[in-house]
Amino acid sequence: MKLTLLMVGRTTDAHLDALIGEYVKRLGHYLPFALQVIPELRQTKHLTAEQQKTQEGELILRAVPAGADLILLDERGQQYTSLEFAAHMQKRMSSGRDVTFVIGGPYGFSRAVYDRAAGMISLSRMTFSHQMVRLFMVEQLYRAMTILHNEPYHHE
Fold this sequence. Notes:
This protein has helices spanning about 15-25, 50-65, 80-95, 110-115, 130-150; strands at about 5-10, 35-40, 70-80, 100-105, 120.
């Protein structure tokens, strides 16, 4: 199983980028993991939110491998505790299918992306910047792996 975190736009904060890089490195000890960035759209001030979602959606769908499960990070998605998320990841890993998590652009996802998705998760009912969500997601993926391997990172 290969795990990918697909993100619209690059991380612009060097401190966040360093922290994300640390968790990406740690995740590599457990399974093949990759961050993939879809460049931000240019000249968006003349686009409606719907047009922007459609264009980003086309780029997202092109980036997701045909056989991979697509999981959206979306405010309306399923919320998990860290233990529940680890169990969810165990089920996905046992299927053997690649998984691509996606953090969308500022307006969310197009209908075509929602239609392709195998599921949605929400990290919180609160709203976070897309840059912070990247860090939170890679940390939770790492935490899930340590839980599944009975390592002492997570405390209950």
